[in-house]
Amino acid sequence: MEMRQVCMVDDPVPEDTTAQSPRKVRVTPIVLRDASRWRGVNHKFISLGIKFDRAVAVDAGIRIIPKSEDDYRRIVRLFREEEVPHHTFPLPSERNIHAVIRGVHATLSEIEIKEELQQRGYSPLHIIRLKRGGGVPMPLVVVILPKIEKSQELFNEHELLETKSARKRKQWQSDDMRKAIEDVRSNRLGYLSAAKRYDVPRATLYRLCNKEGSPDTVCSTTLGRKTALPPELETELVNYLLIMDQMYYGLTRKDLRSMAFQLARRNSLPHPFSFLRESAGKDWLYGFMKRHKASLSIRKPTGTSLNRALGFNKEDVNEFF
Length: 321
Prior knowledge:
Elements (H helix, E strand, L loop, with lengths): L4 E2 L23 E3 L5 H11 L3 E7 L2 E6 L2 H14 L3 E3 L8 E6 L7 H10 L6 E6 L5 E9 L3 H4 L21 H12 L5 H8 L3 H8 L5 H5 L11 H16 L6 H14 L15 H10 L14 H6 L2 H7 L1
Antiparallel strand pairs: 1-3, 2-4, 2-5, 3-4, 6-8, 7-8
């Protein structure tokens, strides 16, 4: 265990503060790097009336614990004027607030982020965009703010800088987005100006402008990932299921999952279906039924009506096949 020696040479005896009941506010220490200058520094403290609780010898030099924040400032000012080598840290009351904002789009620059914060009444001192090893911007931004009451409100912000939150997605209108894309692609407006004019998200506008296709096509895209089977094949599968039902040959859920796998394999489509079972999964089945709930439903077999039985004859079957 490292032993620390208290400097006793010509040191004023610190006052006994053990009898004070209220807890003292801890003052940031100051480290005097050159221990040989302690005698002169100590005499300077006595002549100027600078008070400190204690001075402890450490590996880096002499660690001085000021009596109060005012004494801390006077010591730092004295060391700077006398060019005394030292190091310290800001006082707790003077330390800035560091806030990390997540989900900020990589296209937003530090200047745009600072302007957005200033419009909301904040006074950012520095904006730092975090980056990966290759210099690729990350969706993380560090904001340094002065330690004031307004800065604390930043931690309660939920809709800031188009960050990800629990709000609903795709709240913009397709017509507004289409006009914004046309203005950006024709170089009439920039991304930020078009987003403000047509009230659309800037990140979404940037993504759709760089997407191949006409403005009407890119605006009609739906949320979520693509289905395993394209919409055309799913429509054919739905029609086939309805035809088989009219022919009194209703298919089971297992049959449907197997048919989905066969369609994907015969059309050489990439799919997440099981090759071992040669069948689609239950998640795909539930999603398929949800997408076509207006046409399909799962039912238990029931008795066939007379009209349907009479309609199932050789002529109708030959006409179908």
